[in-house]
Amino acid sequence: MSNPFLEPYHTLHDATPFDRIQLSDYEPAMREGMRQEDEEIQQIINNPETPTFANTILALEHAGKLLDKVTTVFFNLISAETCDEMDAIAEKMMPELSEHGNNISLNEKLFARIRQVYEMRNTLNLTTEEMRLLEKTYDGFIRNGANLSDQDKETFRKISMELSSLTLKFSQNHLKETNKFELQLTDKHELEGLPESAIEAAAQTAREKGKEGWIITLQAPSYVPFMKYSSRRDLRQKLYMAYNTQCTHDDELNNLEIVKQLVNLRMQLAQLLGYKTYADYVLRKRMAENSEHVYHLLNQLLEAYTPTAHKEVSEIEALAHRLEGNDFQLMPWDFSYYAEKLKNEKFSLDEELLRPYFELNQVKKGVFGLATRLYGITFKENHDIPVYHPDVQAYEVFDKDGSYLALLYTDFHPRAGKRSGAWMTSYKEQWIEENGTNSRPHVSVTMNFTKPTEDKPALLTFSEVNTFLHEFGHALHGMFSNTRFQSTSGTNVYWDFVELPSQIMENFAIEKEFLNTFARHYQTREPMPEELLQRIIDASNFNVAYACLRQVSFGLLDMAWYTRETPFDGDVKAYEKAAWTRAQVLPQLEETCMSVQFGHIMSGGYSAGYYSYKWAEVLDADAFSVFKEKGIFNTDVAQSFRDNILSRGGTEHPMILYKRFRGQEPTIDALLKRNGIIN
User: Fold this and answer.
1) 225: Cβ–Cβ under 8 A, 6 or more apart, which residues?
2) Which pTM value belongs to this model?
3) Residue 183, phi-psi category: left (phi > 0), alpha (psi -120 to 50), beta (remainder)
4) 580: burial class by Cβ within 10 Å (0-12, 13-18, 19+)?
5) Any domain includes 163
């Protein structure tokens, strides 16, 4: 059987032929990809002509296409649809891929040519985008050790390889730990308080596993409703502790030592490159620029939101005392339960009331319809485009002039091979060929939404609707990309800018005009009643300060790990608790630990970057105020957002792009107003 990666795909829009890819294809294709890229690098180095932008920077940009194609598919599927065999391939190939990457970034002859072009940059009449690519290439080599001594280069290689193996191990451990736990309930009394949707889902999980009764798992669609609604405090505690002690047990899935190793190796890497801390190294290439600016934002938020957060917790405590007696001590496993009761009491808004109006297909129509209304784009499902799992749907996306814009894959429900959370990624990025052909992107959004049951379609929570809008915002950023180079296209922007296109979409979730376009009862087709719409809006700032401090606490934890100047060999749990204590408003438990399952900062791309969510929130509130002023469906504002931000990728500094759209730098005021912290 031939290897589909090693020949033209011959599919519509050159879509990945998932139906033809076998597990046995990955390794040989990766090896061939590395061989080809090595050859391409040699051609650049051996070119007798004087280094130029075209024969060095552009040639490097175009090198490694096969390897990029294979690894993109492979690592996307490791997150979305893995299995033991894929994990084994990853463990085998990660060190080799890391070594291959290091061989390129530490190649002295190649770097000498890049440096030569970089030093002549002001005489080359480059476009803004070309200059950006040149600077990005040069900086990338510097940041990957090209300027180091031979001895330090060897150390750099060693650290990089260790990091690639450890991040993989961290993720695998967390996924296995999540999948390992199940709370099996066989007595009806153990289901007290749970809504019908959660009971049906738990029964379905039990059936799928061939077991009696009902099964609750640590996956969000199972865990979150149980913590919100179960009146069985003992079971909530059990579930909470299982969730919050993942990867801390005395077994092969423990991540405590891995956390220390990751943190220390990253610090070592940064210091090798001349930075005091890993945060200094990362933030050089962020809008924030340095840790002082990050802490300034986090402290601003702490100061603004802490008084309100304490009031919110006191209110929930007061309700718990009213219901359970004054001796009752509110613990972390109680918070969601009594918060939900209070929300219901204040706004008569039970999440379960909303579910029937958020049937997944309707929500999808609403989100796609919003993109059509704002930008004129349309979506057409195409069953001929291969997908990697029956749950996945593939859409052709067409621009307002009817021309083909992108492919979009949607993958909505949890399964054993899929990591938790939600994310957007690309199977192919956008670029413009030398002959002027615009090679369009293939974008994917992956979530873990409530599954359909035997009796009901997939009915989403309001929070899941928000998640959909968020990831779809990232997808628009990828799909609208219109840049010359792959390296600067789509979401290849500074990390603290990448969340703006996603978070701005969440603002629509509390706009009646938008909700009215799709929120229909899945049985009666009746629109969501006006008073229910109003309750959603009224409740939108419920516990907003508590939620803000929660995110700030994650930012503080992240910064505590990555502003270190000395190796860490202490107690991970104790260090964590000290790091984020200023932002905690509930009791902390000795046994719990977030760091060991905090994939964003340990195995994902948000190390020294978790603050980006709050940074982007400041941007999104500020940017959405323009829509609020001109009309939430205003096509001129949308076009400006598309032209100045969504289509520009990383072709210029993000603040320049932002000011071009907004006319000024952002302030924190719009966020504080939106959250009701100031009038």
Assistant:
1) 194, 195, 197, 198, 201, 461
2) 0.91
3) beta
4) buried
5) no
**Pick from 507, 510, 470: which is nearest to 623 by CA?**
507
Between the two ends of the chain, the Cα-to-Cα distance in Å is: 67
Length of the chain measured in residues: 679
> Do residues 485 and 590 both lie within one domain?
no
DSSP 527: B
Report, as residue numbers or ranges, the catalytic residues. Answer: 471
Tokens of 532: 């229910």
**CA pair distance 106, 150, nearest whole angstrom:** 9
Do 297 and 424 share a domain, yes or no?
no
Q: Do residue 553 and residue 515 come from a single domain?
A: no
CA-to-CA dists, residue 232 to 194, 227, 587, angstroms: 10, 10, 20
DSSP type of residue 400: T
Residue 75: inside a domain, yes or no? yes
pLDDT digits (tens, 9 = 90+) for 521-569: 999 999 999 999 999 998 999 999 999 999 999 999 999 999 999 999 9
In a domain, 331, yes or no: no
CATH number of the domain within which 48 lies: 1.20.1050.40
pLDDT digits (tens, 9 = 90+) for 278-310: 999 999 999 999 999 999 999 999 999 999 999
Range of the domain at 604: 169-178+255-307+546-679
- Same domain? 134 vs 46: yes
